[in-house]
Specification:
metalloendopeptidase activity, 2 domains, M23 family metallopeptidase, Glucose Permease (Domain IIA), alpha+beta, Cell_wall_metabolism_enzyme, Dup_hybrid_motif, single chain, binds zinc ion
Amino acid sequence: MPALLLALAASAVLARQDDDAADAGRIVFPAEASQGALVFGRVPPGSEVRYGARSLRVSGWGTVVFGLGRNEAGPVEVTVVPPEGAPVTERIRVAARDWPVERVDGVPPKTVSPPPEIAARIQREQARVTAARERDDDRTDFARQFVWPVEGRISGRFGSGRVYNGQAAPSGHSGMDIAVPTGTPVKAPAAGTVTFAEPDLYLTGGTVVIDHGFGVSSNFLHLSRIDVQVGDRVEQGQAFAAVGATGRATGPHLHWGMNWFDVRVDPLLVLERGD
Ligand SMILES: [Zn+2]
């Protein structure tokens, strides 16, 4: 390589190291984020960070993450107590989104207005899924770029108001639906640990939750087959289940939801983060 190019390359490396070094001691959050977004921030390693009622886990290089719900109006505040220096409170504006209404007809009526004994079963099942999402694992699989678990047409969007057989559902659609045939392999959008795997929940059918660390998890619903068990580690891109139409579904599709603990976030925004 000519000397000039070598010198340029060397200075580029030095400049990048300077950026990293400068970033390492700084507090960096976006000024604004969308409803349904995962928000990433940077703090001095060793800081204490609070967001609402939660104390945020801080990675070795100072990454923190939290989620903004569909109905979060903001602004939200994050308080950082660095190992040295005074506490800092960061304010983040929340960009409102439009939530269209999607009508879904032809849903089995017993899944829209379940009888009391079924309602109790649904509650019990939901409580177990919620418990799986409460883990605060120290792995940082969430910090890498996510990939699509299947490729196909988006047939339902996160947050849209849902009307099942003409009856408005109490909350927005909890994830993204991708229309693909039964049997299509579902690949892990990011690495993680399987924290829930059940073949037959009443509403969601075959259901898997993968924990990506720091409270960030993915859930996959209506699966026809599950090839993993609780405790298994999956790598990004690894096929772990097959698409189906089990539970409350009108046809085969993958429902992919994402959470930060109990806060539902939009997988599409997570996918687009690296674009
Ligand atoms: Zn869905």
